[in-house]
Amino acid sequence: MSREPLFKISEAGLFCPRGAFYVDPWAPVATAVITHAHADHAVKGSRRYIAAEPGRLILWSRMGQHAKIEALPFGQSIDLNGVKVSLHPAGHILGSAQVRAEYKGEIWVISGDYKVAADATCAAFKPIRCHTFVTESTFAQPIFQWEPQEVTFAQIHDWWRDNQSQNKASFVFAYALGKAQRLLAGLDQSIGPVFAHRDIEAVNVLYRQSGVDLPPARIPNQGMTPAEWERSLILQTPSARWQQGFPHLGHFCNSFASGWMMLPDATHERRVHQGFPLSDHADHRELLGAVAATGAERVFVTHGYIDEFVTELKSLGYEAIAMRTPRCRRPPKVIIPPINV
Ligand SMILES: [Zn+2]
């Protein structure tokens, strides 16, 4: 088989010459198939967007009201110049999709960002058989191994109760799109009142309008009392930090919910008291499992620990190739501290 590959990296992003469309282009193009609405995957200005139906409202809110978005239900295919394209759940955030493209029996799957763990706020990741798989590698290092999310939520709840016993508010920093909603859906609201920064609540509204059953969350500056402060859990965007958006009513503890909190020294670097390694990406084992489940012989690795994962996949017998793009930033070096015996 020596015909031209179905996809290649071009100036504007991952391009399918045969189908004349891009996947997650970083510049405006004629036809953009979008895996999900995070800013590093969806940019404004394309003439036509194709995305999964559950994420339509979110993408629309980010691409602008004049954006032309064709929403495709999961599993339904569309013909793009003879290439059969369909979208399948990636489990990352609401509406996140893997892109399956088939031409003359050759099948490619582009994963976008994905996670394997269950998430009450989006459809579960589904492995798709293919010949060539383009996988992300955000956490493709053995140090990244998530606990079952029940364990992580129990840790958050214990920490929250502990803070309450010291009359302290509990801040959890979380990305506004995806992570914050997953947290909100999983928190035990019987422990105390839950508040969300206004940027997070704006996304919550879109989730609710998209049919996700999210509990209510008040915006902190809307009449929070000192008594509520001491019992509250406040979801805050990392960029806003704790100072903004509400009155400062007393003592507090802060924390960060992210896979990066597995790194030694992460709480110090993020200037928080506590880290909760809750991630919207697959961990190292889950990435390996997801690659195996596709049955792919050829794997392109992008976004993350590219070189390390390519080396590992090669050692496992895959034809693994680095796919570097201008969006790929070198992730933090993983330094495992020596064990004190
Ligand atoms: Zn993402």
Notable characteristics:
2 domains, alpha/beta, Rossmann fold, 341 residues, Metallo-beta-lactamase, Chain A, 18 strands, binds zinc ion
Round the Cα radius of gyration to an integer and report it. Answer: 21 Å
- pLDDT average, as an integer? 93
CATH fold assignment of the largest domain: Metallo-beta-lactamase, Chain A
Helix content: 10-25%
Low-confidence stretches: none
Q: How far apart are the termini?
A: 55 Å
Order of helices and strands: EEEEEHEEEEEEHEHEHHEEHEHEHE
Structural class based on helices, strands and sheet pairing: alpha/beta
The largest sheet, given as strand count, sense and whether it forms a barrel, is: 7 strands, mixed
Shape: globular
The CATH class of the largest domain is identified as Alpha Beta
CATH architecture of the largest domain: 4-Layer Sandwich
Ligand identities: zinc ion
Domain module tally: 2
Residue share in β-strands: 15-25%
Superfamily at the CATH H level of the largest domain? Answer: Ribonuclease Z/Hydroxyacylglutathione hydrolase-like
Number of helices: 8
> Total strand count, please?
18
